[in-house]
Amino acid sequence: MFHYTQNFSLKNYNTFGISALAKHFLTVYSEEDLLIFFEEYGHLKNEKRLFLGTGSNLLFINDFDGLVIHPVNQAIRLICDKNGIFEVEVDAGVKWDHFVNYCVDKGWCGVENLSLIPGNMGAAPVQNIGAYGIEVESVITKVKGFDINLLEKRSFSYEECKFSYRTSVFKEQLKDQFLITSVVFQLSKKPKFHIEYGLLETEVNKYGETNLQNIRKAVIAIRESKLPDPLKVGNAGSFFKNPVVSEGTAEKLKNSFPDIPQYRALEGKAKLSAGWLIEKAGWKGRSIGNVAVHEKQALVIINLGQASGQEIFDFSELVAKDVLQKFGIKLEREVQLI
Ligand code: EPU
């Protein structure tokens, strides 16, 4: 059964720890809940909407003057087990890292590199979460949910999800329209590990053989050494995306800054490290008022305590402006502004 309330505090529903109110807040356990809710509260269908899991990738600048929908369904269902390939359907309210831990325990390979990413399952496909050389799209076969405009259930095949770097159809064309209620994964018992990213291999070797448990341990150790725990320090992970630029631009930058890290991206483009650009611009560890750039990973902006959303936003604009001035590169936000 759904739970509906008004003027609800979102302070514990965003990892930046910003105080903001939701005019309407709806908790749902199933797609049926949504149908029943809109039968009764049809007038709220045209309110502005926000789908919210744990709020680990957003920044509230103001109160939210609309309807927040918070799915909390919690099951993990095995739907197919054939020749060492497992298909499993996971509800939107399951914590992402709980699912990773579950897979590693079962010996299912595919999501171990994505250990310790904050947030709930429902958000994972929206921005195609990724880390240490893996993006979640590599193991997703279907995304299921409910179209609020049409008031009907729908299932998206992998192709229909239109995944690319930190985005999908759910973040673009169907933003605030399609609520994800479950995600279907295909995972495998056959080991196929990816430890070539950065220092991952070195870290895994510290624990012995290359297996699921040790990859998970290594990823957790690397993340904990660089990324602040949102339960202790308000933050939303990478504040900006890594910029993708033309090869020409990349080459010019390489001439001026020979040590600039560059990675191959699709269609002959190059991906730069926003963290490197921010660090080189002199912002790593720097603070203004209640906001700072994290001292161990410059892509992360942190709330030192009592910052408002506006303060964090203004600070991020200063950082982006400075990077634009120094390198001619426009940083795009990864976090969603509300
Ligand atoms: N770098 C610096 N200074 C910094 C940070 C990074 O110079 O302060 C340079 C270094 O050269 C480093 C390279 O950037 O070798 C890459 O750094 P890192 O491995 O920490 O990853 P990232 O590109 O900064 C991305 C994701 C992270 C993810 C890591 C690991 C984005 C926007 N961010 O960061 O994702 O954990 O890779 O795979 O793609 C997130 O999305 O919230 C997030 C934390």
Overall pLDDT confidence: 96
Q: Roughly how many Å is the radius of gyration?
A: 20 Å
The CATH architecture designation of the largest domain is 2-Layer Sandwich
CATH fold annotation of the largest domain:
Uridine Diphospho-n-acetylenolpyruvylglucosamine Reductase, domain 3
Arrangement of strands in the largest sheet? 6-7-12-10-11
Structural class: alpha+beta
Q: In this structure, how is the largest beta sheet organized?
A: 5 strands, antiparallel
Oligomer: single chain
Helix content: 10-25%
Q: Please report which band the strand proportion falls in: under 5%, 5-15%, 15-25%, 25-35%, 35-45% or over 45%.
A: 25-35%
Which molecules are bound besides the chains?
A: uridine-diphosphate-2(N-acetylglucosaminyl) butyric acid
Count of domains: 3
* Low-confidence regions: none
| Distance from first to last alpha carbon | 28 Å
The CATH class designation of the largest domain is Alpha Beta
How many alpha or pi helices? 7
Describe this entry's structure for a reader.
With 338 residues, the protein is of the alpha+beta class. It has a five-stranded antiparallel β-sheet. It has a four-stranded mixed β-sheet with strand order 1-2-5-3. Strands 13-19-18-17 form a four-stranded antiparallel β-sheet, with helices on one face. α3 crosses α4 (212-226). It has three domains: 3-71, Uridine Diphospho-n-acetylenolpyruvylglucosamine Reductase, domain 2; 76-188, Uridine Diphospho-n-acetylenolpyruvylglucosamine Reductase, domain 3 (2-Layer Sandwich), CATH 3.30.465; 234-337, Uridine Diphospho-n-acetylenolpyruvylglucosamine Reductase, domain 1. It has helices at 31-40, 96-106, 200-206, 212-226, 247-256, 274-280, 309-327; strands at residues 3-9, 21-28, 49-51, 58-59, 64-71, 76-82, 85-91, 130-131, 134-135, 140-147, 152-157, 178-188, 234-238, 244-245, 262-264, 270-272, 287-288, 291-293, 300-303, 336-337. The chain is built from seven helices and 20 strands. It starts with a strand and ends with a strand. It is globular.
